[in-house]
Fold this sequence. Notes:
It is a single chain. With 144 residues, the chain is α+β, with helices and mostly antiparallel strands. It is 38% helix and 17% strand. It has five helices and four strands. It has a four-stranded antiparallel sheet. β2 and β3 (103-109) form a beta hairpin. The protein is elongated, with a radius of gyration of 20 Å. 12% of the residues are buried. The model has no long low-confidence stretch (mean pLDDT 93).
Amino acid sequence: MEHFIDEIDKKILQLLLHNARMSVAQISKEITMSQPSVKERMLKLEDKQIINGYRADLNLKNLHRGTTTFILLKTEQCQNLVDFCEEAKEVTDLYRISGEYNYLIKVQTASIEELADFQDSLIQLGPSKSHISMKNIMEHRIML
């Protein structure tokens, strides 16, 4: 089901993407609309599940999780992999993909050594290829 959003909704979403803690009062000033109208629009966006939540943007390097790695994995043990990833603190994202490999796992570790330990525990599920990010250039970008 497609949900129509107008330019005002897009402005609200852009402001919240920039700062999820922005108050309704501040948003209403930015888009020159009354606070009750802004609040009503935000509630409608939540009801339509366009806004699913409000999150903090963490500095993973300062949390000793600054090494980003993307792991391609080929497995037939799909549920075992999902269970493994749900338990592994290093895993931040898991995608089912097409092609030679059927999963893409994004992991955040403190070091290459910690990554090696993670990969050692992952090997039981199938062959993999790892790509270590040298620099995060763009992340969490949403174009409205």
